[in-house]
Amino acid sequence: MTGSSIEHLVGAYIDHLIVERGAAANTVASYRRDLLRYQGFLADRGLTDLRDVGEDAVRDFLVALRRGDPDNDVVPLADSSVARTLIAARGFHKFAAAEGAVVDDVAHAVRPPKPARRLPKSLPVDDVLAILQAASVSEGPRALRDRALLELLYSCGARISEAVGLDVDDIDVEHRAVVLRGKGGKERIVPVGRPALAALDAYLVRGRPALVKKGTPALFLNVRGGRLSRQSAWQVLVDTAERAGVDKDVSPHTLRHSFATHLLDGGADVRVVQELLGHSSVTTTQVYTLVTVNTMREVYATAHPRAK
């Protein structure tokens, strides 16, 4: 490729995305917008030839995206938008180097910001109890199934896929435990509380026999007698939370997060919670400790005479 002007190379890269990569129209529009912003940033610094652009200029662009420009009413971008814009610039530099327009890919070492660590959403104990209570109001096979499902999800912190994947034989009533099959087919044995066992017993005795239509080992069944799907189990929780008056966003993972957070709040060791959740690394579980630390800070701020 001849020519190393930034404007020319931006046009060539956009054509490459369309013709060679077959990028979707929205993707092309996003890249064009981000690269025009990058081109304008470089032009403001007197850089119109890509051979004159070094790694420092790319890093300055990253800083400018995150800082904004209050004097010109340019607001800082969120980390996700910064990452998207920088990825476009990095792709552009990589393309220019591959085409021989420049010698080196000077953007290679400039990394987009890591997304902010999101704390797991958990519910207060009272909200969880309200949901479980709402599930126990009605009788009938489906109501018994729904209560058993929700009690189990909270009692052992199961993923929704693990819960609907259970077979009847996975419940060990004698030892008050359940066998869960997690990611990668890894099995773990998790204790189950008495309320969940009682709900499971009621479902197995009075609910499941009315739902089963063929010899299936599945524990939780739909109205056709087949295994309950993840989507249907999700809807069970959403509908029950609505009846309970819990107006927060609730998902099966919310109960899993609540299970972990409530255990840690109660003094459980993080490594024990790791095993119960089926996490391969304790660092994955430690994100829940951030929730409990925030709780401790709130208590300290309101209760300690020297906190303020």
Automatic annotation (TrEMBL):
Coiled-coil residue windows: none
Family: Belongs to the 'phage' integrase family. XerD subfamily.
Active site: R159, K183, H253, R256, H279, Y288
Record lineage: Bacteria, Bacillati, Actinomycetota, Actinomycetes, Mycobacteriales
Residue span, Core-binding (CB) domain: 4-97
Alphabetical list of Pfam families matching this protein: Phage_int_SAM_1 (PF02899), Phage_integrase (PF00589)
Main location: cytoplasm
Xref: InterPro entries: CB, DNA_brk_join_enz, Integrase-like_cat_sf, Integrase_catalytic, Integrase_recombinase_N, Integrase_SAM-like_N, Recomb_XerD, Tyrosine_recombinase_XerC/XerD
Location of the Tyr recombinase domain: 118-301
Subunit-structure text: Forms a cyclic heterotetrameric complex composed of two molecules of XerC and two molecules of XerD.
Origin superkingdom: Bacteria
Subcellular location: Cytoplasm
Record gene name: xerD
Protein name: Tyrosine recombinase XerD
Role this protein plays: Site-specific tyrosine recombinase, which acts by catalyzing the cutting and rejoining of the recombining DNA molecules. The XerC-XerD complex is essential to convert dimers of the bacterial chromosome into monomers to permit their segregation at cell division. It also contributes to the segregational stability of plasmids.
